[in-house]
Amino acid sequence: MPITPFHLGPGALVKAAAPRHFSFTVFAFSQGLIDLEPIGFFIFTGAPIHAYLHTYLGALPVFLVSWWAGRPVGEWALRVWNAWLSPEQARWLGYQPKISTKAAGIGAFIGAYSHVAIDSIMHGDLEPFAPFSPASPWLHLVSLETLHLACVAAGIIAGLFVLRWLELNGRSSVTGNALKGEGRKGRSA
Ligand SMILES: [Zn+2]
């Protein structure tokens, strides 16, 4: 880690920059999936080890599984999210419960590989190039506090992008049309 939620900040920023080409939902799925590794090791051994999935080679199955499974899970999560919203809330917060294959692939790829890159800055047990090399050239490149602050700042900047987007596009463009997948400006996840 940094614990999974911190990874969401950079992902939100990518989403703000390329909303139609990047699935934040699948990105988030990949973050949870890859961190099952240290969580599982912690439960069974007492040590949150980053040995296999937290490598650039191990990120490959994380990417592929997230691409394959993250899309239907993400679409289901979006349908649940939309169902929770009142009609008025849906005007602002509703999302199309449809994720394209391309956006899912990009979200899964950036999710898996950015996770390893970010985690390799802070975990001494993580060898990103294993099994080919024990090198960890980015370890302690910045302090833990700086890393966490950067992740939070990315999330805040992404939030500002979203507010600006809502201001520019107004309420109507994210209303029912978005949920029905009919509007050109309807948001995708
Ligand atoms: Zn991790």
The whole-angstrom Rg is 18 Å
Helical fraction: 55-70%
Q: Domain count, please report it.
A: 1
Summed up, the helix count is: 8
Average pLDDT level: 88
Beta-strand segment tally: 0
Report the principal-axis shape: globular
Return residue spans where pLDDT drops below 50 for at least 5 consecutive residues. 172-185
Order of helices and strands: HHHHHHHH
Topology of this protein?
Layout: H1 4-17, H2 24-34, H3 36-45, H4 59-84, H5 87-93, H6 101-122, H7 144-169, H8 176-180
Helix pairs in contact: 1-2, 1-7, 2-4, 2-6, 4-6
Describe the structure.
The chain has 189 residues and is mainly α. The chain has one domain (4-180). Helix content is 64%, strand content 0%. The chain contains 8 helices and no strands. It has helices at residues 4-17, 24-34, 36-45, 59-84, 87-93, 101-122, 144-169, 176-180. Helix 4 packs across helix 6. The chain is globular. The two termini are 24 Å apart. The model is unreliable at 172-185 (pLDDT under 50). The site of zinc ion has 7 residues, from helix 6.
